[in-house]
Amino acid sequence: MQNSKLIINADDFGCNSIINAAIVSCFCKGIINSTTIMVNMDGFEEAVKLAYHNGFANNIGLHVNLTEGHPLTDLAGTGLTNQNGQFIMQAASNPRNLLSPFTKSKIKSEIREQYNKLIATGIIPTHIDSHQHVHTLPVLAPIFIAFAKEKNQKLRIAAIRRRKNFFGTAYNTLLNRYIKGMGVHFTDRFNNVNYFMKYLQKKTNFIPAFEVMVHPSYNKDMLIDFLENTNLEENLRCMLELYKEKYTSK
Description:
alpha/beta; 9 strands
């Protein structure tokens, strides 16, 4: 069986101290091998120190954030921030907020500033993704793809799931085809732990590269995926064992 590349990426590094600690623990336990960092959140400086101290500064990508916290640039007049200058959670998902050339220009500047802030720490990102997957939105995707191309970076593709909304699945399929055609795709497939477990159980031949997304945090002393509300360590160890049995060379 041919070797296959598996990336297990923890989103939201730098969000806060609890998430930072959970992600560090995941690295130390060997159940993740990648993370993406939010440079505009309160836990960013701590996250950078932890990454260097624990030896995974070379396994960090940029988690562009256009939906939470304060931006690094002035986004007044774009509809993306409130009167206090904080991002409005769902504003980037509203196409009407994104159509003007003024807003697109401001978003490009914000992405660039977030990228530069990470670079200034000495960390060269492995790839780029985004908080709440805004880089896959129809208006924003071309901006992210162009930026990735400019910086010789790779970009997370969209998750393909069975949906009642046929058009959503079709759009993500076409978007992934375009990202791959532009040569900026980080992996060939992307999804969550549950999807990948089912994929491992069904498939006999594996694809070259797969990214699994997780969101580590703590519930008391237990490592959890706070989006899925599941025992993260247990699920990842089961997934890795199955992956090892099926897809690593003897």
